[in-house]
Write a structure and sequence with these properties.
- By secondary structure, the chain is an alpha/beta fold.
- The protein has a single domain, classed as Rossmann fold, CATH 3.40.50.720.
- It is built from 9 helices and 7 strands.
- It has a 7-stranded parallel beta sheet with strand order 3-2-1-4-5-6-7, with helices on both faces.
- The structure holds NADP nicotinamide-adenine-dinucleotide phosphate.
């Protein structure tokens, strides 16, 4: 009998998450498309996947809230079966700013949306996947950022630091669950064409910066999705606690 294939992708209505959900569905995964507020994008994506012969559900949940995460995972248990792949992708960015102009509200919002959310989803996934709890194993892929390495000075150090935390989470958790049937890896995208740059206050940011990228262009969400899919697949079966940079050479 073939292994069950159930994937939850957080923040999957748009951008990198949407491209990832499409790719997993095309490869036979039953997919949960999680979103926070953009119901229309999530529903449109679900229609597309279903029309293509794929299986999916959409679940509204703010993954920075403990109760929402519990509801999200139990909805998946009931509708699709136990999750075998978690892609922690949901994330936010605030307007470009120097550190001395950031207040506690902004910093806490970045940290709860970008870090607490990943911890909470990892916790729910480990409880279901780990052989310690009679699970069948599974894979977690965290979406970090090249910002974890650059620090994003004069733009958003808060966001960059939140992604640094994801790199550390990836390393620590990968070692904690290595003997329990779970692999944990991470992708670090660079400049990718999504709505996120508009949230940072500069929709055309990639156009401004693309000349400094060795490959001389921004990346597409689909290019990140392929790397996530590979890390979730058996083809990367000896990889855990690793980082895959997708930044065009930056
Ligand atoms: P995006 O187009 O702005 O999409 C972000 C998604 O996250 C949206 O679907 C949003 O939901 C969801 N989201 C945000 N907070 C959430 C929460 N608390 N609960 C549930 N969903 C939440 O961004 P993207 O560029 O695809 O980013 C995806 C990931 O890639 C993020 O982790 C980001 O940091 C990372 N990344 C992006 C780039 C880039 O250049 N774009 C580079 C490096 C890393 P709604 O649609 O409901 O608002």
């Amino acid at each position: 009998m073939s292994k069950p294939k159930v994937a939850i992708i957080t923040g999957a209505g748009r951008g990198i998450g949407a491209a990832t959900a499409k790719l997993f569905a095309r490869n036979g995964y039953a997919v949960c498309i999680n979103y926070k507020s953009d119901k229309k994008s999530a529903n449109d994506l679900a229609k597309l996947i279903t029309a293509d012969g794929g299986q999916c559900i959409t679940v509204q949940a703010d993954v920075s809230c403990e109760n929402d995460v519990e509801r999200l995972f139990s909805t998946i248990d009931n509708a699709l079966g136990t999750v075998t792949v978690l892609v922690n992708n949901a994330g936010i960015l605030k307007k470009q700013s120097r550190l001395e102009d950031m207040n506690a509200e902004r910093i806490n919002s970045i940290l709860t949306n970008n870090v607490t959310s990943y911890f909470l989803c990892c916790r729910a996934a480990v409880k279901r996947m780990s052989t310690r709890y009679s699970g069948l194993g599974g894979v977690i892929v965290n979406v970090s950022s090249g910002a974890a390495l650059s620090g994003s000075p004069n733009e958003y150090i808060d966001y960059a630091a939140s992604k640094g935390a994801i790199d550390t989470l990836t390393k620590g958790l990968s070692l904690e669950v290595a003997t329990e049937g779970i692999r944990v890896n991470c992708v670090r995208p660079g400049l990718i064409y999504t709505d996120m740059h508009a949230d940072g206050g500069e929709p055309e940011r990639i156009e401004r910066l693309k000349d400094i990228i060795p490959l001389q262009r921004g990346g597409q969400p689909e290019e990140v999705a392929e790397a996530i899919y590979w890390l979730a697949s058996e083809k990367s079966s000896f990889s855990t606690g690793n980082y895959l940079d997708l930044a065009g050479g930056l």
